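explain this chain.
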Amino acid sequence: MSDAGVSAVADDPEEAPRRLHPATMLLGVIQGAPSTLLGIPAMLALVARADLPFILAGTAIAVSLAAFVRWLAWYRFTYALTEDAVIIESGLFSRNRRMIPYERVADVGIERRPLQRMFGLASVTLETGGAGADEGALSSVVLAEAEGLRDMVRRRRGRTDAASLSVNVSVAPLAARPSSGTGLVFAMTGQRVLLWGLFNFSLVGIAVSVGAVQSVAGAVDWDRETLWNAVAARTGVARSMPALAWAGAAAVGSAIVLAIGIATGLIRATLRDHGFRLTDEGGRLRRTRGLLTRSEAILSLPRVQLVTIDTGLVRRRLGWSRLRVQVLGGEGAGGRQDLAPMARAEEIDPLLAVLRLTRIAPDDMEVVARGHVWRAMLRRVGLPALVIAGAALVTPLALLASPILLLLMVAATLSRRHHRYRAASGLLHVQRGVFGRTMWIVPMARIQALSLRRTWLQRRLRLATVLVDTAGGGQSCRPDIHDLREADAWALIDKLRATGTRVEATDETLPD
């Protein structure tokens, strides 16, 4: 779209409805080509006995009808920026009208896929705090117009936020005040992206590859006996030594699986995080990344609910961690977004300062109750011990897996040492994990609800778990504090309740 059109977006609050770029229709055809190709065999079988003129006429009618439907869908899709909302209308026969007030817009994202970059286009996404459930999307607009739309929505959202304050803006909470903006605050070089890919060992890629190998093996009728013969021939292992043949085949298979996992992780990290840059623009962070699909996201600091710093066993030894934030809406489960996928400690602390957060050393945090070890033993060791004991009744060789129980017992014992918490200076710090370790930093004002829960075993050990709920979070990765002494749990809740957090006490019997 022309510069005049872009300026109209910025200057005319009651603009006429606009349409997407006409290339949207062509992009839709290209993107739908793979699914269309799947139907070609069925179409060929249907018209196998038809005359050529009939086939050509039918093809022309089908193409014309499809083109008309795409044109009609493009023509019926309009959007407009009014004084107080973004209005999106769509629908071929029944009209759908979506009105998104500016104050509900949590983030305005710009993404450029490879085909869009060829046409100079971009996708604009209006995220409204519903973790992807309630969003407005403009699939193809000119890049300059996409940036103009984003700037206009940001300005009008800021105006509505300022108008909604019941007191003077100068007494707004610290989290709502814009920072000075310091430009680039974090970036990842190509070497660091590749290193990050090495730690993104992909189990999904392995599963897909194993399935493909099984399909190929079934197609060429290559059974396991053939595989063992091939390994024996390559390694020089005689057929009279089947155990060595099995060991050789297992080693080769493990090497292949490892190579596939590493390669998949490298590819995923490169495609997603190439050119990763994070800049501070005063009250918001702009993140750009991607090799083929270039995405851009704006993170408003007042909408950050909590921060997580996670690391694995190897990464921790090498001094690497990942910094993520949980926001209202955004990509990923529960609205979690990466701020620094692979960062050193000296890089994480300045990022926390931009978010107006600080972290404390684990040694300055409090350890949960001793009874946590008994529950950890039950959860981590109990079921594997029963499985090994049951298998031993069938074959004594199952007892060779007993050392695994010792490793699990060590992990259960260490879990208490690394499960720590502290509530001070308006922040709740929680740490969990033995090999992989995660620290949560939660502003107390962002806590939506607290729940006190006790299981059957916890009640007999006089323990309780404090469940911490925040906006935009999921159920799988919450900053819960397990196995506190009951008195300590209630003391912590009373301290957090001072911020106005709602408290729920759950006392039903739950399994461990």
